[in-house]
Each structure stands twice: as C-alpha cells, then as structure tokens.
C-alpha cells in the first residue's frame, strides 16, 4: 500500500473503523491543468510562419498567440534522444539514448534502454491522478523490442501511458502506417482511396481518448503526448494541399532565405545583426574532412543557378509537397484544439509544442522519390525522380526533398538534422501556452532552454512534485528547469553569461545564450 492503514480492525465489525485512503486511486489536486505536449518531427527553425517561415500553420500561430514563443530552444539533432529527454527531464546520455532507438549498443549511454529510475512524466502524473495518453510516433523502444514476442516494458503502456495509438518506430507511411493500438497491431481504419491519412487518424484518436474519460469523470485532468508524423519523411499529402503552394518556392531555396530571416527579426526571434549562413559553409563538396577523407556528397547543397530547368521544377515540387504536408497536419492538429475549446478544456490546458530536431537532410543533394536509397548511402539521380514527379506525396512514393530545402527551412543556420555541432541541427521552435496560467506575450522569450525543460513545467504547474519513488523504483534527479520562469542562463563571475550543454554528440559552449562557435564577424 502507498499509505499506511489508519483505521481500526476489531473483533467485532461494529467496533471497527474503515480507512479508504490506502486503497483509493490517486486524485489530482482541484483545478489541476491538463497537459498537451505536441512534438513535431524534422521541422526546421525557419519552416512555419509563426517562426518566419513560408509554410502556413494557423494552428501553431494560434498557440503562439495564446502564449510564448521561445527563440533559443535546443534539441539533440536526432529524434530519439530529444524525445527521451522530453519525456524524462534527463539528458540523452543519462537516458541511454544518445542515438536513435534502432542503433543500440552495449554501452550505458547508447543502450537505448531508458532506465526505469528515469521516470517519464506520464508515470509521474499517472500516479498523481492524471489520465495519460500517447498518440503518434514513439521511437523510444529498442529496435529489437518492437515485435509481438518482445518484452513490452519499454512500449508506451510500460512507461506510464494508459492508452497508445500510433507507431513504435522512427517513421511510417502516412497512407499505410504500421499502427499499434495499446499493445497490439491494427490495420488503418480506411485506405487512401477512401480518404485515409495518418494525420486525420491521429487527431481522431486524440479526441477519442480525451472524450472517453471526460464523459465519465469531467474533472480528471489528462496528460497527452501528441507526437505527429509530420514532417518526417515520407512527405505524404493530398495533392490539393501541395497545390496550395504553387509559385511559393519557384525562386529556389537560396532566394527565400533572406525573406525568412527578415520576418524572424520582425518577430523578435533573432537579433538585428544576425546574418545568413553561406551555402556549403566549409567549401564542400571540394573540401576534405579533417581526416583527409572526401566530404560526404550526400550532405552538400547544389546551388540553384547550377540546376537545369527540369531539376528546378523537380525541387520546387518537392518543397510544395512538403509544405502541403505540414499545413495539412497543422489543420488536423487544429481539430484537437477546437475540441478542447468546445468542451471547455482549452483554457486550463498547458500546451508545449516543439520540434525534435532541425529540418532533415536525408534526401541528399538531389532529393529522392524513395528515402530508403539515402539510408543505404545512395544518391537518387534526378532523372529517376523526374519520372515520378506527379506521384510525389502520393501512396506510391516514399519521398524526401533535397538538402537545399533543409538548409532553407533551417534559416538562418547552417546544416540540418544529425549535425549536433551546428544550429541547423539543434535550434528548434518551441511554443508554450496556458491561457489560464500564462499571460500571452507579443514578443519572444530568449532565455536559453533545452529539450528537457518542458518536463518541469508539466509537473510543477500541475502541482505534482517530482517524486523520489515511482512504481516502487527510486527516481534519479531530473536535470530540467521550469521554462515557465523564463529564467536566463546563470551569470558567470565575470558577468558574462555562459554555459555548457550536451547537444547529443558532445558538449557545446554558449555565451549570451548562443553557441560560441557560430559567432561570425
């Protein structure tokens, strides 16, 4: 029993006194807020319009207008490490997740087995009277444990979530996803021909999970981890959504970056003296790596003016499809917020919306109709993709845009996802809103924060202290700090602000909240 029995047991029942406290389910304090954590996938810093980008995302702008935009939020440049930190409040190495879940190795920092003493926020809140739901991408279970014969203690239901609907791996088709419902596989409820898309399906399930409990116990708060499929490849979307961006990207990725930076400055996201990173900043592909080996061709950008008209046409369509994918996913996310508003739950819901890393360069310099070529070290000739240009985004594709767009959607920074030493990999958008508890701010909060700072607001704002024990397991100390305090990095003795933070592949020194290695004069 969690609490000692304080009643009285006598020989005669008439002389006995019951005490229900040790036996009742935990109950959250009165008026505890709901918590909705929204994780976007591979959305670069300069992608969405609420961060100066060209992609229209009215739902994300709605969240931004309700709360605070964080301009200096950082991740680990990879999916699993960021998500592990987001759920536990510990850094990736402490979680054994300093790599992606499929790349486990027999060492503590990269075992991909998150220690049970590193409690998930779902475990903490579940034991304090919350319903807990996970919807969408998981990517926190070792690759060898995502089968029906495997140990399921590291599946969502094994880490404090009462309900799960989504996929366990790092990516999935939007048309034919590998779905898991709670602890068993299920088929999608419809086909692409019948209008199926995973973004719509995930929103349906998010609403269903919340409604199922609220009709029984309206006062019980919930914690939901809504982990979107977008904008990880494959970039799948209905043609009409991609067509909305006709003409937006015709000038190319180099041409749109100055406009993105201008809007970022107008929003207060970046200082006025911020400059754009140059294309191929190390002089690649002709330059050699420090070890003398050739620069990896797959991590280079082809200048727009060196492309043929057909290549430009192909790359433009790749960007249109991607933008439509993000906008459609944002539209479906809006249905969840609409439901919360119509049911009277939105005002007392803490919303944390982030991306797990920078835009993805996994399409290589030419983009691809089949992303799996990249994972096998193969570039995709543009001639091959041009044969399928009208199929991009559809059920027959497994497409990914080229590195030029990753660079543009990470404006103003260099590089992209996987590059843990550069802002293009680790600088990400972050929005926090709580209409009943946080005053909306027209300007951005520039305090330095990392992916594990969203854990403390989820627990402290919901009146839940971080426990020493959970599920009879001693808990390690969370490394997070509540972002809701808008606290800047602590001052050094000489008065300058400086800190060292672990980005995933190693520590990175920062000054004035910005990585020192990227200061240019």
TrEMBL record:
Residue ranges, compositional bias (Polar residues): 449-467, 500-511
Protein source organism: Streptomyces machairae
PANTHER family per UniProt: ARYLSULFATASE FAMILY MEMBER, BLL2667 PROTEIN
Cross-referenced Pfam families: Sulfatase (PF00884)
Entry's family note: Belongs to the sulfatase family.
Annotated stretches, region: Disordered: 273-294, 449-521
UniProt keyword annotation of Metal-binding present: yes
Protein name from the UniProt record: Sulfatase-like hydrolase/transferase
Keywords assigned: Calcium, Hydrolase, Metal-binding
Gene3D superfamilies, A to Z: Alkaline Phosphatase, subunit A
Comp. bias intervals (Basic residues): 474-499
Classification via InterPro entries: Alkaline_phosphatase_core_sf, Sulfatase, Sulfatase_CS, Sulfatase_N
